[in-house]
Amino acid sequence: MKRNPATIASSDREVPGIEIAPGLRYTEVLVDWLDPPAIVETGFARMAPVHHYRLLHFDTETTGLAGGTGTRAFMIGAADWLDGRFRIRQLTLTTMAAETAMLHTFAEWLSGDTVLVSYNGKCYDAPLLATRYRLARLPNPLAGLAHLDLLHPVRRHWKRQWPNCRLATAERQLLGVVREDDLPGAEAPAAWLTYLRGGSARNLRRVAAHNAQDLKSLAGVLLHMARCPATPG
């Protein structure tokens, strides 16, 4: 029988945030990041203009990239503009049993006029969350919401000019963002599982930093593209 690899217990178990439910950590920070116009032009995504307060940028960190019912989100990050500043909120599971509480909390951040902003979220993050809500026997709060997935317009504009259209490439090309000490997304599942087995929380904190930068980059790419709404033929 195959066994999970043993993890040496660590004294570094500090996960950022406050515990808002058993096994669920919550962080919220306000940062000075960009200055959105009141109305964001989204013609580049073939959508009507939208007021910036309706935008909710979101990104998940998950236990795998394959999807399916065995994959879960152990971190959900969401960001919006609040009183002129960029608010980043994150939910992190420190036990598997807290997933339902995380789903309930994330649902409270959404309303009927929310416009979701993601990068490949239509194909990955949103369907994954829909599955987790269904398995938890909860209504899916993302159903029916407008969803601006930036991957598709980025591909339309730059797929012939860039080596790839990953978010890391878009943020570097459009925003000049070069990440330092960034934990690759592929290593996020191991960081969480290591923590669950009693290991160090260091890489889990790096996952949170990676997620926060993803949210900032989503907003940056969105506003960059809003200034050039025409799609090349």
The run of helices and strands is: EEEEEEEHEHEHHHH
What is the helix content?
A: 25-40%
Q: What is the 3D form? A: globular
Structural class: alpha+beta
> Which strand-content bin applies to the residues?
15-25%
Spatial order of strands in the largest sheet: 1-2-7-6-5-8-9
**Count of helical stretches:** 6
Give the quaternary arrangement of the chains.
Answer: single chain
Rg (C-alpha, Å)? 18 Å
Number of strands: 9
Question: Care to describe what's here?
Answer:
- The protein is an alpha+beta fold and 233 residues long.
- It is built from six helices and nine strands, in the order βββββββαβαβαααα.
- The strands form two sheets. Strands 1-2-7-6-5-8-9 form a seven-stranded mixed beta sheet, with helices on both faces.
- The chain is globular.
Question: What order do the helices and strands come in, and which of them pair?
Answer:
Blueprint: E1 18-21, E2 24-31, E3 39-40, E4 50-51, E5 55-62, E6 73-82, E7 85-93, H1 99-108, E8 115-118, H2 125-135, E9 146-149, H3 151-158, H4 167-175, H5 188-196, H6 202-226
Parallel strand pairs: 5-8, 8-9
Antiparallel strand pairs: 1-2, 2-7, 3-4, 5-6, 6-7
Describe the structure concisely for a colleague.
With 233 residues, the chain is of the alpha+beta class. It has helices at 99-108, 125-135, 151-158, 167-175, 188-196, 202-226; strands at 18-21, 24-31, 39-40, 50-51, 55-62, 73-82, 85-93, 115-118, 146-149.
